[in-house]
Design goal:
The chain is of the alpha/beta class. Helix content is 24%, strand content 29%. The protein has helices spanning 5-13, 52-62, 78-88, 110-115, 150-168, 224-229; strands at 26-32, 36-37, 48-49, 66-73, 96-100, 120-123, 126-127, 131-136, 142-146, 178-182, 187-188, 194-202, 210-213, 232-236, 242-243, 248-253. The chain binds ligand LQZAQKY5 and molybdate ion (MOO).
Length: 256
């Protein structure tokens, strides 16, 4: 259990001045993609602001991890290799490396090219977050290769990385708090894949909260704006094709 204000006060009230705590896992976040530019810097055609690094750093911190390095690298391979070497050797060895992008089937897939033999690349029946990579390097470092689309990276973090970071800290409550709420409106879901839809909770009737998509017009995995509005993910089973108003939907509550 994390020690928040109530737990610390209870310890103090019981006259306990010293407690043993688990060490925060050391995490390196590597965003991949030659098209990425730090936010605020000038861009040319085909370049986009780098947002996954900030997303993942903040999510790691919320999950109790310590981000010891956050960097973005191009698709060329040498910078990526250098970062992996630094994260897996010497005193700065990381417990966990999280990469984003470069795991699918495009022309430039630096994670796949460089760590193809060390990681397992899978297609998971979820949307977003289909292409995933995971493996343990000889140093013992866990590597999570998340897809590059911003919503895909955020959802993949929650499904695969967050429970691992919590388990590394000895936590047993590995999952987000979940509710079942009726849908406030209808939406379509991807066939054959479990949907994680950025969602908001409609509290207009305090006795009957309802869930609705955070943004109208579907669940594009590139829609970073939907993430900003979301306070939850609505989770819809792969077998469901359409959610109808009133259907009970599983809702994972997000923080911050
Ligand atoms: N032939 C196939 N192509 C794709 C498939 C497939 O199954 N077969 N799956 C698609 C799906 S689904 C996803 S998700 C993406 C994921 O691919 P990658 O992990 O290789 O991601 P990238 O191509 O590197 O990036 C996708 C998209 O996201 C933007 N991006 C990447 N990193 C960042 C960042 N740090 N900040 C902001 N935006 C980022 C990137 O520019 C691309 O637009 O693959 C599909 N293709
Ligand atoms: O799985 Mo991708 O993450 O649908 O966009």
């Amino acid at each position: 259990m994390p020690l928040g204000p109530r737990q610390l006060a209870a310890l103090a009230a019981a006259d306990i001045a010293r407690v043993t705590v688990s060490e925060a896992p050391h995490v390196v976040v590597i965003s991949t993609g030659s098209e990425l530019v730090e936010p605020g810097l000038s861009r040319s055609r085909g370049q986009i602001p780098e947002s996954n690094g900030l997303l993942l750093e903040t999510l790691v911190r919320q999950a109790g991890g310590d981000v010891v390095r956050r960097v973005h690298v191009d698709d060329g391979g040498s910078a990526f290799r250098r970062e992996i070497a630094a994260a897996t050797t010497g005193g700065s060895r990381a417990d966990v490396v999280i990469t984003s992008g470069g795991v699918s089937a495009g022309a430039y897939e630096v994670v796949k090219t460089e760590l193809g033999d060390a990681l397992r690349f899978s297609r998971v029946a979820m949307q977003p977050g289909k292409p995933q990579a995971f493996g343990v390097l000889p140093s013992g470092t866990l590597v999570f290769g998340l897809p590059g689309n911003p919503v895909s990276a955020a959802v993949s973090f929650d499904v695969f990385v967050r429970p691992a970071l919590l388990a590394l800290q000895g936590r047993s409550d590995l999952h987000r708090p979940a509710l079942r709420l009726p849908a406030a409106e209808s939406w379509h879901t991807p066939p054959g894949r479990r949907q994680y839809l950025p969602a908001v909770i409609d509290r207009s009737d305090p006795a009957r909260w309802r869930v609705r998509p955070a943004t109208p017009g579907g669940s594009g995995s590139h829609l970073a704006g939907a993430l900003a509005l979301a306070e939850a993910y609505a989770v819809v089973p792969a077998e469901t094709a359409v959610v109808e108003p009133g259907d009970l939907v599983e809702v994972l509550l997000l923080e911050g």
